[in-house]
Amino acid sequence: MNKKNVLSVTIIGSLLLSVIIGGCLQGKTDIALLFSPLGTIYVNLIKMIMVPLVFTSLILGVSSISDVKKIGKMGIMTVIIFLFTTAFAVIIGLTLSNIFKPGLGVMMGGDTYEMKQFPSLTDTLVGIFPDNILGALLNANMLQIIFAAIVIGVSLVKVAPKGKVLHDCIEDIFETMIVITNGVMALTPIGILGLMIPTVAQNGVAVLLPLGKLILVFYLAVIIHMGFIYCTSIKCFSDFSIKEFFTGMLPAQVIAFVTCSSAAALPISMQRTQEKLGISKEVSGFVLPLGATINMDGNALYQGIVALFIAQVYGIEMSLTMQLMVILTGTLASIGAAGVPGAGMIVLSTVLVSVGLPVDGIAIVAGIDRVLDMGRTMINVTGDAMTACIVEKKINGRKI
Ligand code: ASP
User: Fold this and answer.
1) Is 369 in the pocket of ligand 1 (CB under 6 A)?
2) Any ligand 1 atom below 6 A from CB of 341
3) Domain 3-396 adopts which CATH fold?
4) C-alpha distances out from residue 165 to 116, 133, 158, 159, 161, Å
């Protein structure tokens, strides 16, 4: 086995091992939870690298373009791809839910759900502009960090040749972060044990069975979105083969799956796209952090399926207008969701309110949210990487 594949194989091995151990520990959650500090340490290590990595990579990427028009073109293209794939995701979700009707025969009840406040579009837009760069960095506010890094990158070009020392210093920090990322990646199999054993032990068959059909329909949607939208886009609009893409991105996908956080998977995604797929720093450093914050195809799939599921449980007929409204709000609300565990459920409350469905319905799916979140996050991260592949071809037009 070549060295390149060792990590992928150990990651998959560790995933299987944690399913076995977690399965054996069902009903013994206290023992399973003994593994969770390993997962917490692993996620903390990733979060430690995230802000300096994104910040420095984006400054370097933008300052290496030096053509403001090119940055604008890259931004517009990225956002258009994000919007289209997100809208397709909600449509796939709605279609499958219409066909398979996973909500029929499900009894109401379940956990209680406390409605959380979802930021309005205006708040999200205003929130992009930081009043304090250090504050944005300290709070790991991704949109503000992206904005500050672009402004600094563009300005750095304007102070040349004087800014050389600062540029080199930023480059050194970036390279150091990549070295640390490699180190953290080597710990991934251990992190997976810590994250997955408690998850599997807590979400035993007894928890999953009543909503088994919903879970199956959701993962079918995941497969269709990945197999149809992503594979077709990669084949038609990028310079990569489907095999190259998925082999390159597998570790990032697994990390997204086990951490349920696009933000946590970001350093690994950046490292894989740059080092394994050979995508330029400027594109990867721009598209991926932006995608981790605003592009949530997995979330959109989930909105489409679960909104209709809840309507079915309550016996509410969803008109075409209501379904179109789900597509619109599902697409837009996904933009405002953060790349953290459970964000999709908060978005769902906005979607339900906008179409007049009972928000209490969230309580029915709350108990299995972790299981759906794993698939959502994996799709979210894959969609960002796919977009980076397409933008790379359009911006740099090179065969890698
Ligand atoms: N956990 C997802 C993510 O980090 C967001 C969501 O809940 O849909 O991408």
Assistant:
1) no
2) yes
3) Proton glutamate symport protein (1.10.3860)
4) 46, 20, 14, 11, 9
Angstrom distance (rounded) from CA 196 to CA 166? 42
Quick one: CA dihedral 200, 219, 284, 151, positive or negative? negative
Distance 68 CA to ligand 1 centre (A): 32
Atom of ligand 1 at shortest distance to CA of 343?
Answer: 7
C-beta 291 within 6 A of ligand 1: no
Q: How many whole angstroms from 69 Cα to the centroid of ligand 1?
A: 32
CA geometry: angle at 204 spanning 31 and 212, to 5°?
A: 165
Name the residue type at position 177: M
Answer whether 25's CB lies under 8 Å from 204's CB: no
Contact residues for 228 (Cβ-Cβ < 8 A; gap 6+): none
What was the pLDDT predicted at 400? Answer: 47
Q: 257-316 pLDDT, tens per residue?
A: 999 999 889 999 999 999 899 999 889 988 998 898 889 999 999 999 999 999 999 889
Atom of ligand 1 nearest to the CA of 376: 8
* Residue spans per domain, the chain: 3-396
What pLDDT was estimated at residue 270?
92
Distance CA 153, CA 156 (A): 5
| Res 15: pLDDT | 87
- What pLDDT does 2 receive? 59
Cβ partners under 8 Å of residue 113, min gap 6: 345, 359, 360, 362, 363, 366
Find the 256 Cα to ligand 1 centroid distance in Å: 9
Looking at the CA of residue 380, tell me the nearest atom of ligand 1: 9
What confidence score (pLDDT) does residue 76 get? Answer: 92
Return the pLDDT at 159: 85
Dihedral-angle region of residue 267 (phi above 0 means left; psi in -120 to 50 means alpha; beta otherwise): alpha
CB distance 260 to ligand 1 below 6 Å? yes
Question: Among 297, 299, 259, 301, which Cα is nearest to 384's?
Answer: 297
Mean pLDDT split into 10-residue runs, the chain, 400 residues: 70 89 89 93 89 88 78 90 92 93 75 58 83 93 87 87 87 90 88 90 76 93 96 94 94 93 91 91 89 90 93 89 87 78 85 86 85 95 97 77
